[in-house]
């Protein structure tokens, strides 16, 4: 099986990045903390830990008293399939070989590392949350929730009523900082936006009743479209359809919708990007970014309160900026884009030098804490990934409010 490495840097809220209680060798796929994964089908056990070549004392010293990883650190490596599913304010969901680990702190769970045992081998496909992790969606379209006030391993359960309200075809559930909830379902062809969490939870109870006009905003005018992903920022949502077109809706306080007027209640295609197929979208705070399908251009819009990012248009403009730092280098391919709180991160590869690079622009007091300077242009983030050849490995980046994850995987 191909090897995977996951690196982390940044603000470690309640051991969100490093794992339980500063343990240098956090076990990712074990219930008994032995470092070995128990295979139910009799396959050979294997080690799944952090970099075995790193010294435990050195790892602990990489964190200062404020719980900050001041340089990129490998938090997982091994011959397994690994993915950073979701990064919230104080929680991170990692999937390791189909099993899910919750790191950090949530409203109903105070342990820093928790393995989520999903029934029938279901895989988590999206995270759900705001400042606290509230629920997840598995590959069967069922919505899982945490039981309030419970501190045992049985905190996770399927909300059958809520799942059935969407006919068990939920693809994604996400929530903005304003607590507006958006649900993508019907195999990606329908999006419903709720004005609050209580409205979202009450939907299952009122499914069989006449829903009050205006209480929910359903996007069903274009059933022929299929949305492939959906993201949430502080006050808005962004989605990408199968044709690569970008849609936004929600509040438009700082131009984060890239729409010619104010707030939008239903997903609407972004005029400035119409006809330009995109591969992925990312958002956080008041900034949104999209990566073109040819992996050459990154379009950005919105507003950051701290350091200005070159290419980011003025707040309120209905035009998208473009990061053109790599225009003169035709050998650069942008593999992934992510947005944090006031900063943007790119991962690139080079077909000539075969180098994998991670780039950072923007910044805030949070990013200053872990040694990344505020910068209007992209600066290179040094890490072990630079020694891996791009013709052998791929790279993905993910961001939280004040942290960065870099996932490197063998192709």
From TrEMBL:
Entries under InterPro entries matching the protein: RCC1/BLIP-II, RCC1_domain-containing, Reg_chr_condens
Pfam family, one: RCC1_2
PROSITE patterns assigned: RCC1_3 (PS50012)
Domain of life: Eukaryota
RCC repeats by residue range: 244-294
Annotated stretches, region: Disordered: 32-61
Acidic residues biased stretches: 51-61
PANTHER family: RCC1 DOMAIN-CONTAINING PROTEIN 1
Name of the protein in question: Uncharacterized protein
């Amino acid at each position: 099986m191909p090897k995977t490495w996951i690196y982390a840097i940044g603000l470690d809220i309640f051991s969100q990045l490093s794992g339980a209680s500063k343990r240098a060798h956090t076990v990712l796929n074990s219930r008994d903390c032995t470092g070995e994964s128990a295979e139910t089908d009799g396959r050979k056990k294997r080690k799944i830990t952090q970099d075995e070549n790193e010294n435990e004392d050195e790892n602990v010293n990489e964190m200062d008293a404020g719980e900050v990883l001041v340089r990129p650190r490998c938090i997982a490596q091994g011959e397994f399939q690994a993915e950073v599913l979701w990064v919230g304010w104080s929680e991170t969901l990692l999937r390791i070989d189909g099993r899910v680990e919750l790191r950090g702190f949530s409203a109903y769970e105070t342990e820093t590392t928790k393995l989520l045992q999903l029934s029938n081998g279901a895989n988590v496909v999206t995270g759900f949350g705001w400042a606290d992790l509230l629920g997840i969606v598995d590959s069967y379209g069922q919505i899982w929730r945490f039981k309030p006030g419970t501190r045992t391993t049985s905190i996770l359960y399927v909300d059958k009523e809520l799942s059935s309200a969407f006919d068990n075809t939920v693809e994604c559930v996400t929530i903005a900082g304003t607590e507006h909830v958006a649900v993508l379902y019907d195999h990606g062809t329908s999006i419903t936006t709720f004005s609050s969490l209580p409205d979202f939870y009450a939907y299952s109870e009122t499914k069989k009743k006449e829903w009050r006009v205006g209480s929910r905003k359903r996007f069903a005018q274009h059933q022929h479209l299929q949305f492939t992903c959906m993201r949430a920022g502080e006050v808005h949502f962004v989605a990408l359809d199968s044709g690569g077109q970008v849609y936004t809706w929600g509040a438009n306080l700082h131009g984060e919708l890239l729409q010619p007027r104010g707030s939008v209640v239903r997903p609407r295609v972004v005029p400035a990007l119409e006809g330009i197929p995109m591969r992925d979208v990312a958002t956080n705070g008041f900034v949104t970014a999209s990566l073109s399908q040819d992996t050459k251009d990154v379009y950005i819009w919105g507003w950051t309160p701290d350091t200005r990012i070159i290419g980011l248009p003025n707040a309120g403009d209905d035009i998208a900026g473009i990061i053109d730092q790599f225009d003169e280098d035709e050998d650069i391919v942008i593999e992934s884009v992510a947005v944090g709180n006031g900063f943007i991160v790119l991962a690139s590869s080079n077909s000539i030098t075969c180098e994998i690079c991670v780039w950072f622009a923007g910044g805030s007091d949070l990013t200053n804490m872990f040694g990344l300077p505020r910068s209007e242009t992209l600066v290179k983030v040094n890490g072990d990934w630079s020694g891996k050849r791009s013709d052998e490995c791929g790279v993905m980046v993910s961001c939280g409010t004040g942290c960065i994850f870099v996932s490197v995987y063998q192709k």
